[in-house]
Each structure stands twice: as structure tokens, then as C-alpha cells.
Prior knowledge:
The complex is a heterodimer.
Chain A: H1 5-14, H2 21-38, H3 73-77, E1 83-84, E2 87-88
Chain B: H1 8-16, H2 22-35, E1 41-44, H3 46-62, E2 72-76, H4 103-110, E3 114-119, H5 153-160, E4 166-170, H6 177-183, E5 186-189, E6 210-214, H7 217-227, E7 257-261, H8 271-286, E8 290-294, H9 302-317, H10 336-347, H11 350-362, H12 369-389, E9 395-399, H13 414-418, H14 425-430, E10 434-442, E11 445-452, H15 458-471
Parallel strand pairs in B: 2-3, 2-4, 7-8, 7-9
Antiparallel strand pairs in B: 1-3, 4-6, 5-6, 5-10, 9-11, 10-11
Amino acid sequence: MSLSEQQVTQIAYLARLSLSTTELQENTKDLNAILGLAEQLGAINTDDIEPMAHPLHMTQRLRADVVSEHDQSDLFQSIAPKTGNKHYLVPTVIE
Amino acid sequence: MSLHKKTIAELAQGLKDKEFSSVEITQHYLDRIKQSDLNAFVTVTDELAMSQAQAADEKIAAGSANILTGIPYAHKDIFCTQGVKTSAGSKMLDNFISPYDATVSHQLNQADTVMLGKANMDEFAMGSSNENSFYGAVKNPWNADKIPGGSSGGSAAAVAGGLSCFATGTDTGGSIRQPASLCGITGLKPTYGRVSRYGMIAYASSLDQAGPMTKTAQDAAIVLNVMAGFDEKDSTSAEQAVPDYTANLNDSIKGLTIGLPKEFFSEGLDDSVATQVMNAVKEFEVMGATVKEISLPNSAYAIPTYYIVAPCECSSNLSRLDGVRYGYRCDNPKNLEDLYLRSRSEAFGAEVKRRIMIGAYALSAGYYDAYYLKAQKTRHLISEDFKKAFSEVDVIMGPVSPTTAFDLGSVKDPVSMYLADIYTLSANLAGLPGMSIPAGFSDKLPVGLQLIGNYWSESKLLNIAHQFQQQTDWHQQMPQEN
């Protein structure tokens, strides 16, 4: 199968990216080439094979539910694009 | 002065014997960086370096130094460094002054090292040539028209070009080993979980692993001693004891069984690279090792497997970069959606966008099973191949990269670039440790030999590499300077 420019536009939107006309053409070509590479995996029989999500087959380690971080919001917000009253500011969402 | 030719071990001895001071070494490196046009650094932290060097000299005078006290290094710009720009090679983080230290940064500070600056890299570690950096390509010290490899290209060029005594790197699909190979230095990617990922900007979380890039295997052992260890701040860090990696360097390798995967010597491998690699293997035979042909039948699928798994993880990891809390924000956003779309589109480079989109697609409803799940199953098969191989051999050897360093700008389409990773990806998919060590030259460009070991066998790999470096002088070669 092959992705159309319309599908690539939709994928870009899912990833919150917008593409110029040139970028759309290039990416349609490149994404199809990469997915073409992925098609090779169809040649392998993976019936009854467990998917491998973690190289060491570790389970998620849990820790005691105790406070380990102190409030550094001023420090963290000092590098934010826009803040006010300890909030991160974005354009108005609800009028 | 030839201070830049000295290894960590040699500098540490000279500091101890008061032949020179850390301030002198640091100034020497800073002068060389200033004169260099390799573009190996995104940020040079000269004032910080000089103050760290002075503090180190005081410790040395007080007799409380360790082997890394006062040794200057280049820190890949993917590790968060408190108060210092941490860009990950991206416009997105060009204004990001990290509010905290990565665990690796903290460990190196605790060891009294001197940070010369932050090393250039492919954007978010996505690349094999260092051409994907927002700060421009890095040049190979052996030939300025060639790529240094990637993504830790700045780190490799800094060490090879005599701009730092050692460097840090990270390796998701070969990003320590491949640039180490193409620049003629020693690079070690440890077992997944060996070195903390806390504060190391994530690309593909189940594959990323940090390691040392050095002049020798002995130096790599010294640096790994500081970097390795359990970190409760990293949920994927392994609770595995850390040996002294320098302890077994001098062990004999007589009786070592080396496995040569036939798939690593097939079509696509440059003849001259194959020759150098086989010469190195013969050297091991002279040293008492035996060689056995093995097969990693699924390694041929490493490229498609990796280029699904890694983009899936990257599309998730990079979703945090949205122009709200830190990093780049577009001018005058019309609304929240415009803020997200334009901030990301204006700040990410072409390769990063490609991988995010591949990941977003492969994880989307209706395609998850066909791509992501399929790739995870293949990943399991690739890993099983190694398990079988390590029941027969002690170490696997082969080329790191199918060719030597290619011309800057010569590989234009992404799929051709991905093929450069053919021999390195499998170790990341399986989570195994791997090394690249200098093994010769082809047309005046370095060729690396890859060693892949079983889980937690870093000591063994370093021992094997060190023994090779006792018999050869490839690792002592340095590029000619004008």
C-alpha cells in the first residue's frame, strides 16, 4: 500500500505538524520509502512470538509513595515562553 | 605542547607528578577548540571549565584527587547541564537552559572532571552523519570533506581532533559506535540500563544508552566506572552491581571464542573495510583466540524493525515539545492549535519530523498491529538470535559500518542513510553492550572493529579491546594537522 498526500497531511496533523507544499511532496515520497522498508517484516513468521517491549524483560519498578521532589515551579517557569500567576500561558481556549 | 595527545591515564599521572596543572591542560584544550573549524561544539563553557580546573588543582594539591580529577571532556549536548544551554542539536531547545543536571552530568561533576563544552550532535540524536544538527554539520578530523558519523559526531570529532581528552555519547542505533569507528576512536555502548537515562533527552526510551568515547579502552573503563550504576530516578535503570571496569583489563584472552556472523560480511560491505576487520580478527587469533562462524539470521530485519520501533517511541517522547512549558514558541499564535502546529513545525528539522510522522502513523488505530506490534515481535527474534550465539561464543566481532566516512552532503535520501546503521542496530534492539575500536585505515580514513558482548559483559569487552590495543597502534594514530 502507498500513502497519499492527503493521508500524509492527516498523519502530520495527528503529530501536530504542518507541512508546506514542498514538504508534503517530499514527505509523501520519503514516508512511502520508509514504509516500503517496513514491508520487509511481512516475510517473517511471527506467529506465537511475544512482542518485546523492553530489552531486559524488566517489570516497572515501584517506589514508596513519599514526597521526593520539592516545589521548584519558579525555577521551571523561568524558562517558559509565557507565564503569569504561576500558570503557563497559552492563547485563549474558551472565551 | 602535546597534552591533547595524552590519555586520561597519562594526564592523571602527570597531574599527580605535578608535570602540569589542570588549568594548563584546560587552557590548552580551550585554545585548540578556538582554533578548530570542526564545529564539534554547540557551546564552549570556557569560564566554567577554568573554574572547574582551578578547583581540581586545589584537590590535587590537597591530595584528595581521583583519576578523573581535572580531566577535560566534551559533553554531548543531549545531557542536561544545570545553568548551561542543552539544545539536543535542535532549534526547539536553542533557548533551553536546563534547570537541573542529568545523572551522568552529576556523576562527572562529582568526579571533579572539567567540562569544556557541549558537543554538537544530530537533532535529538536522529542521524548517522551529524548533518541533521541545527548548528550545522560537524567535520571529520581525518578529512574535513567527510562526515564524522552520528549522532554523537561532535563528541567523536572532539576526541579524534584533540579538542577534548574524552567525551560522552549516547547510542540508540549506533550513535556511539559508528562515529567512534569513522573518527578512529574507542566507543562503548553499555548494556541497556547500565547508565542512567535521567536527564538524557529521550529519543527512543527502550533503546537509548549512554557511554564513554575515548582514546583507549583503558580510558573507557575509567569513565564507565563513573557513569555506570543504578539510579532510582530512572525507572529503567538496572539494579546490577558495578564492578571495577579497570580490574580485568590485563587478563589474558587466550582461549577466547570469537563469533563472526556471516550476515555481517555479506553484500553491501565495502571490501577494504572487510579486509581491515579480518586483519584485526587475525590479530586476535595470533593472541590465542579461536574464530567461529555464526549466524544471526534475523539481523537482516534490524533496519525495518528499528525504523518502526524507534520512531514510535520518538513520536511519543517528542510530543512533550509543544511550545508551552519550555523550548521554542512561534510568534503571535492565533490560537492553541496554531501554537502547537507552528511551534513544532518551525522548530523541528526534516529528519525529526519524518520520524515523528512514521511513529504517529505506525501507532495509529488500524496500523498498530501491522507495524509496531510486528516490529516488537521481530525485535524478540533478533534478540533470541544473540542468545543462541552467546551459548557458543564469548564475543561477536564484525564491522561497525559498511563503509568509511562518506562525503558531507553525499547521502540525500533517508532510506540510504538508514542503511549505514545495518551492523549497529541489532545490539540496541537486543539491549546488548557493544564497542568500536580502531582497527586500521582505508584510503586514509579510520575503520572500526565492532565487539558485541553478552548482557553485563562490559568488563570482558574492555579487556578484549585493551589487549588488542596492547598489540596494535591504530588507536594511537591522530589526524595530521595543518
